[in-house]
Amino acid sequence: FYSNILLTVVLIFKSILASFDKSFLNKTSVKNKDLSTEILKCLSNLNFITLDFGIIGFQSYEIVYDFICRNIVKLNNTKNPKHYYHYILQILLNNISTTLLYPNKINDSKMIFLLNFIEKTFTSISPPTLKLSLTDIIEPVIFNKTLNSQYPDIREVSHSVIINVLSIVTTDSSLQYWQLLHMIHYVNHSIDQYLAQLLSIDQLYIISQKLGASVKYLSIVKHDFQREWLHNLYRRLINLNDAPNKSKEFIQRRTTLLKCIIFQVPYINARYLIDWLENIQELSHTLLLDDCHYQDVIDTLWDVISKSRSDISIKWWYTRGIVDSRQTHL
Fold this sequence. Notes:
There is one protein chain. The chain is elongated and about 70 Å long. The protein has 330 residues and is mainly alpha-helical. It is built from 16 helices and no strands. Helix 11 packs parallel to helix 13. The protein has helices spanning 2-19, 22-25, 30-45, 47-53, 59-76, 84-94, 105-121, 127-143, 152-166, 173-195, 201-218, 225-238, 248-262, 270-286, 291-308, 311-320. Helices cover 72% and strands 0% of the residues.
């Protein structure tokens, strides 16, 4: 029954959009904005069905949703947008009850819809609106709330949104400052969630890899930022406390955080690269890993070095690498 409702509504929307000529949809008129707003609100309200039904192969839904997303971005990024995108986010957010307790399928689905919409569109929004949304929605709602949601799906999408925001390459100084202010705090929060078993190993790896490139870019803005970033990861590893120290879980945690440092190798400034490779080599011995995890560290390091195609790293591997026998992998 519910799936039939979704199919009917989506087909109606598709027909409505097809009935308008391009001249109407290219206008930044009130009617165009109202149409996009109402369709998006309706899709949000029906998202509890969409999550069960799925959209893979549901081309009509994808056509309608993709068009509305592009249209909203275009309408916002005009010469006189009046922060239309931010207005849309506020409408979607206000449609989510803050009093209902988790879990609530319909309410939670609306939050997932909002987060997915932000993830899909946010990096295309003009800086003035983007900055407003950072202050009013991204930080207070996502960074401070949904990132800690009890619902794993909401947490996962929240992480994707934050990663995208922190990965935006921009010349806007206020956006760069926001990224610099939140980057280390976010990775520490992610490590805490991993240690609390709220974030998987693979998710933490993705975070450390994707943000590594952003840290390199932000180091152009703040020259010692990469050093701060690397030393923070180093301290989190060294200060890792657990008991008993030889437990499998503790060894895995040490290995995971060490690999997070290894994933930074392709982005490390050439002046400090040898120092950090030797730090990794030293840590691989001093952390007292078992043979299995030690080999995992070595495999990861070689994989990162070989893919980086860095002459400095490859030369270091041959002359002062961790295990000489690994050279046979060339």
